[in-house]
Amino acid sequence: MPESVNFVKHRRKQLTKRQLLDKQIFKYVSITLGVVFGLFLLSVGVRLYMAYSLSQVMAKQDQFKQLVLDQESNERSYVVFAAKINTLVDLFAKRRDKQEAINYFSNAFGNQVLLSNISYEEDGTILSLILESNDVFVLEQVFENLNNPEVSSQFQQLSLSELKRSADGKYRLTVTVVLRSAADDVEEVNP
Q: Angle CA(33)–CA(36)–CA(40) in degrees, nearest 5?
């Protein structure tokens, strides 16, 4: 009975247990809340960092895009220049073949034979020229030189036509030559 009379002691014991339990629950809730708040702050920090990084990447991308756009005219000029150079290389290669053929015929027959009426068909790489000589015996040497295997190896095709004697006593012979093109030279090198 004494305990039933002293119910305050019993009640105080219960309250003390309850306070200890509440302290433990408060401690756990505080720790959980602290961890959740820390995670929240961490996620906000990561989000801000990512947004800052993304803005820097976008700024760099815009910078590079502007740099590319600024260089576009230079690149276009370079492409046009390269195309012009390629065209000039082709033209000079064709011209070189023509010049070499004219030089060959000029040097092959000496100073007694004159080259005249030189014409060139670019599409077929055909060179046509007239050989003039005052002497029929020089013209005979021209025929021998043109039938030489060295001449056949230098040119794809060689044809002689229109042998004429003019009123002033000059002999004229038309020579038509098909020049070797650069594509033929490549095929010969790479069979």
A: 135
Confidence of residue 107 (pLDDT cuts 50, 70, 90): confident
Return left, alpha or beta for 103; rule: phi > 0 is left, psi -120 to 50 is alpha, else beta: alpha
- Total-model pTM: 0.47
The DSSP letter of residue 110 is: G
User: Residue 45: exposed, middle, or buried by beta-carbon count in 10 A (0-12, 13-18, 19+)?
Assistant: exposed
Adjacency order of strands within the sheet including 171-178: 113-121, 126-133, 171-178, 157-165
What's the maximum distance between 2 C-alpha atoms anywhere in the chain?
167
Name the CATH architecture for the domain at 109-189.
2-Layer Sandwich (3.30)
The residue ranges of every structural domain in the chain are: 1-93, 109-189
